[in-house]
């Protein structure tokens, strides 16, 4: 297959990717150009951040978040990486994740802020999950990561935190929330969550780009990333929703994008009204971070662990 843009200029160059829902075959150079233009368009459309703001990019060591850091840097934004080192020993997961983040930080010459859970709190994420009696490490981990993104953003003066969620993540989450009719979650699922009540603005500049596109961007730019997922991630329900959507996408290209875009345009505003009435935030009595309870989930978990020791 030949690159469509090169062809329009009378050149013949082999395509490295075919983006089926856009019927677009692109060579390496034009794919990178297209990918970065799409990212910039999403940032502008949702007024995510400007070139005058510094952006905290939450990086896991995987393809999406490292591609995001690289793309934002190339687009001229003032980026800082942020990595939570969870202390997961299996498959040397945490050690290798940190190494990938460090490598990109060095390559693009941008600082990486690392929060080491064991050093700062005294426990790894698995110890925390075990101590709180939760078998699902990943959900405890999600709570801690979200908390730390806000805390570190606040302490370092960042108004905006960017994550690497892609279209596959967002459409699978949307399907899952819709099937359960989780009105609160549906109202809060968006490319931008505004800064409010002590929470940093959360943005997802890759929300319209597929996993195939983010992984291709990482590969063509020689970004080293961790291919294996977290050893604690069992067959997550999100994988089932991703498979279901992939099946529909195969039969009807463009479904994922349409499902998510139309939700944002037509349905989300209705759910958002419900959320505004629902949420009451106050300061955590221990750490001062915003929470709906007197003591936030993170402080509660850490208190319980310390009581045991
Ligand atoms: P996940 O829930 O693992 O798919 O991750 C979603 C997003 O959260 C990633 O794209 C990253 O932006 C961010 N993230 C995940 N793990 C970490 C981590 N250990 N440290 C910092 N950010 C992370
Ligand atoms: Fe945190 Fe799975 S336990 S990523
Ligand atoms: Zn081309
Ligand atoms: Zn707290």
Automatic annotation (TrEMBL):
<keyword id="KW-0004">4Fe-4S</keyword>
<dbReference type="GO" id="GO:0002144">
    <property type="term" value="C:cytosolic tRNA wobble base thiouridylase complex"/>
</dbReference>
<dbReference type="Pfam" id="PF22082">
    <property type="entry name" value="TtuA_LIM_N"/>
</dbReference>
<dbReference type="InterPro" id="IPR035107">
    <property type="entry name" value="tRNA_thiolation_TtcA_Ctu1"/>
</dbReference>
<dbReference type="InterPro" id="IPR054306">
    <property type="entry name" value="TtuA-like_LIM_N"/>
</dbReference>
<dbReference type="InterPro" id="IPR014729">
    <property type="entry name" value="Rossmann-like_a/b/a_fold"/>
</dbReference>
<feature type="binding site">
    <location>
        <position position="164"/>
    </location>
    <ligand>
        <name>ATP</name>
    </ligand>
</feature>
<feature type="domain" description="2-thiouridine synthetase TtuA-like N-terminal LIM">
    <location>
        <begin position="3"/>
        <end position="32"/>
    </location>
</feature>
<dbReference type="GO" id="GO:0051539">
    <property type="term" value="F:4 iron, 4 sulfur cluster binding"/>
</dbReference>
<dbReference type="GO" id="GO:0046872">
    <property type="term" value="F:metal ion binding"/>
</dbReference>
<keyword id="KW-0408">Iron</keyword>
<keyword id="KW-0067">ATP-binding</keyword>
<protein>
    <submittedName>
        <fullName>PP-loop domain protein</fullName>
    </submittedName>
</protein>
<dbReference type="GO" id="GO:0002143">
    <property type="term" value="P:tRNA wobble position uridine thiolation"/>
</dbReference>
<dbReference type="GO" id="GO:0016740">
    <property type="term" value="F:transferase activity"/>
</dbReference>
<keyword id="KW-0808">Transferase</keyword>
<keyword id="KW-0547">Nucleotide-binding</keyword>
<keyword id="KW-0479">Metal-binding</keyword>
<dbReference type="InterPro" id="IPR020554">
    <property type="entry name" value="UPF0021_CS"/>
</dbReference>
<keyword id="KW-0411">Iron-sulfur</keyword>
<dbReference type="GO" id="GO:0000049">
    <property type="term" value="F:tRNA binding"/>
</dbReference>
<feature type="binding site">
    <location>
        <position position="84"/>
    </location>
    <ligand>
        <name>ATP</name>
    </ligand>
</feature>
<dbReference type="GO" id="GO:0005524">
    <property type="term" value="F:ATP binding"/>
</dbReference>
<feature type="domain" description="tRNA(Ile)-lysidine/2-thiocytidine synthase N-terminal">
    <location>
        <begin position="54"/>
        <end position="225"/>
    </location>
</feature>
<keyword id="KW-0460">Magnesium</keyword>
<dbReference type="InterPro" id="IPR011063">
    <property type="entry name" value="TilS/TtcA_N"/>
</dbReference>
<dbReference type="Pfam" id="PF01171">
    <property type="entry name" value="ATP_bind_3"/>
</dbReference>
<feature type="binding site">
    <location>
        <begin position="58"/>
        <end position="60"/>
    </location>
    <ligand>
        <name>ATP</name>
    </ligand>
</feature>
<feature type="binding site">
    <location>
        <position position="64"/>
    </location>
    <ligand>
        <name>ATP</name>
    </ligand>
</feature>
<keyword id="KW-0862">Zinc</keyword>
<feature type="binding site">
    <location>
        <position position="169"/>
    </location>
    <ligand>
        <name>ATP</name>
    </ligand>
</feature>
